[in-house]
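Action item from last meeting closed. Structure (159 res):
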């Protein structure tokens, strides 16, 4: 378990060395993508995607890391273990922003409002395992934050 936690922490704090590149997309998908980018632009307060600011200096912000995975794979356990660290601020529940259309249509500000207040030195983490199985999620996450860290939890199926 300690090895898993150490690996997760190292994955979160490692620098982004090789930039991700989006896949080649068709003209129809480009139109859809531009509409999504416009939605993100309209709903963001600033270019750094910060939301409500508390008087103590903490603020709500887009997470730097998202935990995804399979059902019963231990995503909640990982989130609970990571949230024990003082430099981690974890969302309380599964947000389902990128995979549920009604949540996604609420815009980026709605998503930010679901996040916990965190200090600038803290890493904000969200956990929604269903992002792993939704085909729309990768592009939406990439359009929002190209340097997003994803922690994928899988398990060996029980025969």
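Sequence:
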């Amino acid at each position: 378990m300690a090895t898993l936690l150490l690996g997760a922490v190292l994955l979160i704090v490692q620098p982004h060395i090789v930039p991700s590149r989006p896949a080649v997309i068709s003209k129809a998908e480009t139109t859809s993508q531009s509409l999504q980018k416009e939605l993100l632009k309209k709903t963001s307060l600033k270019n750094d995607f910060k939301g409500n600011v508390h008087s103590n200096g903490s603020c709500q912000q887009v997470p730097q890391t998202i935990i995804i995975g399979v059902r019963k794979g231990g995503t909640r356990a990982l989130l609970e273990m990571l949230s024990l660290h003082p430099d981690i601020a974890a969302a309380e529940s599964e947000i389902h922003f990128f995979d549920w259309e009604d949540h996604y249509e609420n815009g980026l500000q709605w998503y930010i409002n679901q996040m916990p207040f965190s200090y600038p030195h803290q890493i904000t983490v969200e956990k929604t395992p269903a992002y792993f199985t939704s085909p729309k999620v990768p592009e939406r996450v990439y359009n929002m934050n190209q340097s997003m860290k994803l922690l994928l939890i899988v398990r060996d199926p029980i025969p």
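Note appended to the action item: The first helix runs from residue 2 to 13.
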